[in-house]
Amino acid sequence: MDTKKLTLALMMGALGNVLFLLSYVIGPIAPGVAFDFSLIGVFIAGLYGGPVVGLTAGAIAGILPGIMFGPLGTGGVLGLVGLPIGKALTGLTIGLLGKGLNIHRRSHASIITIPTIIASYIPEGIFTYFYFSYLLLLFLNQQMGTAFILTILAKAVVEVIIMSFIIAALIGNRGFNEFIGAHFAKRNNSKPK
Predict the structure, then answer these.
(1) What is the average pLDDT across 11-34?
(2) What are the structural domain ranges in the chain?
(3) CATH architecture of 3-183
(4) How many H-runs (helices) and E-runs (strands) does the chain carry?
């Protein structure tokens, strides 16, 4: 990973933590529950920097949520490790999908981005289910009910759907693409003939 891509990963990971903090402090839905848009930075990093940049940004973006729901919440050290792993999985997946689908070269990149973003959450969703169903029980003797787990996953899917439209707007924005390309990640944005 070169310096520009490392900078992109660090900045988008930091953005993810800031977005988490803002949503957690300003916009709680219920006590301890808020919309979490920290994956916006992870999606940008993965789509513009590739799988390694996305993975790195995801691990960084999971630090503050890991602290809040880990040592400061009920997850202990397991939360501090588990949340960054989940977000890193999403960063890795969106980087692989974006690269494999060559989204930036597509004539309708914004439209393709929406289902790609949603699909990129699947590994983290599976990991989240595994985390709540088995890891918490195994390491902390905490058992979470199926209704609780499904509620967490449903909230996450709604968040990812909202973020997919935000990222689609950014992918379709020439100014944003030129800014990222000029400063962080060189991309060949020419359309196929």
Answers:
(1) 84
(2) 3-183
(3) Orthogonal Bundle (1.10)
(4) 10, 2
